Amino acid sequence: MALAKTSKAAARLSREFRERRIRKLYLALVTGSPPDQQGRLGQRLVRDGNLTRPARPDEAGVEAVLSWSLKRRLGSLSLLEVDLETGFKHQIRAQLASLGLPVAGDVRYQSPMAGPGPAIGLWARSLTLVHPTRREELTFTAEPAGLWPWSLVG
After folding, report:
1. Does the pLDDT at position 89 exceed 90?
2. If you write DSSP's letter for every residue of 121-138 in order, what string do you get?
3. 111 and 102 in contact (C-beta within 8 Å)?
4. Nearest 5°: phi and psi at 14?
């Protein structure tokens, strides 16, 4: 979340988001192990009720792109860093599930692992943007709390 103090700064930040110049990095704790150390995934996605899913050949869909890199393997889980290039509701959850790597605890997207509450293994780790008036690049970072499922990472 980015907040602006003035309407001019808010307009500039809004434009940065709209033009996809804001960099968003996520941590995803997924069930399974990716076949490679890193990858890039581009798919057309559609909303289907409460879910987002890859579009069928006869559906238009919205182009969604993300890149990921493997940070650690943790038994049956893997910790990925995800660089979100586009933004679509549930994009990361849907795209990782389509690779056979559902986010831990995300039963909506077929995770075999349910947690003690509604939390899932997806964390908005950092946001990088250009300051709307000083024009300097700023990065805001937050590490995951030690609650489930992040307590599994150690």
Report:
1. yes
2. SEEEEEEEEE-TTT--EE
3. yes
4. -60, -40
Give ∠ CA 107-110-115 in degrees, rounded to 5: 30
26 pLDDT higher than 90: yes
DSSP bridge pairs for 122: 28
> Is the pLDDT score of 129 beyond 90?
yes
Query: Are 65 and 42 a contacting pair, CB within 8 Å?
Result: yes
Pure H helices in 40-110: 91-98
CB 66 within 8 A of CB 82: yes
pLDDT range class, residue 23, cuts 50, 70, 90: very high
Q: Each residue of 127-151: b (16+ CB within 10 Å) or e? A: bebeebeeeeeeeeeeebeeeebbe
Domains contained in the chain, CATH given = 7-148 (3.30.2350.10)
